[in-house]
Design goal:
Number of helices: 5
Shape: elongated
Number of domains: 1
CATH topology: Four Helix Bundle (Hemerythrin (Met), subunit A)
Order of helices and strands: HHHHH
Bound molecules: fe (ii) ion
Helix content: over 70%
Structural class: mainly alpha
Radius of gyration: 16 Å
Number of strands: 0
CATH superfamily: Hemerythrin-like
Largest sheet: none
CATH class: Mainly Alpha
Distance between the termini: 28 Å
């Protein structure tokens, strides 16, 4: 296991913490895939990227729904970061269509990106909306 959920990661909103825990699960899953030197790396990698795409759709729309609902002041900047994440996942998807791809390397690159994202975005950006969300009665 690479990451463990900690109290300090909480944004103090149950629904969103549950979704962030799901991201930790996916990061750990990818870590296991790499560590076990899984034989079918391409297949596993494709599955994880598919899960991430699904995840980003429902998770970002959850956060953005509340931004609009509560008139959150950092809405624009925050959504720009969600869009950048989506583009990055698209890039990883493109690698999947290349049969000569170095799968161990891109799996590792993806893991690296997700881990950075987790700390930079969840801790750096997501936690900033706690005050607004809580003030509007969302916990
Ligand atoms: Fe988030
Ligand atoms: Fe976010």
């Amino acid at each position: 296991m690479l990451l463990n959920w900690k109290k300090e990661y909480s944004v103090n909103v149950k629904e969103i913490d549950a979704q962030h825990k799901k991201l930790i699960e996916m990061i750990n899953e990818l870590y296991e895939i790499i560590n076990n030197k899984n034989e079918n790396l391409q297949k596993e990698f494709t599955r994880v990227v598919g899960e991430l795409e699904e995840y980003k759709n429902y998770h970002f729309s959850t956060e953005e729904k509340y931004f609009h609902q509560f008139n959150y002041e950092n809405t624009e900047d925050h959504i720009a970061k969600h869009i950048a994440f989506g583009k990055k996942i698209e890039e990883f998807k493109e690698h999947l269509s290349n049969p000569n791809e170095n799968y161990p390397q891109i799996c590792f690159d993806l893991l690296d990106y997700l881990e950075d994202w987790f700390f930079a975005h969840l801790i750096g950006d997501d936690k900033k909306y706690t005050k607004t969300f809580n003030e509007n009665g969302l916990f």
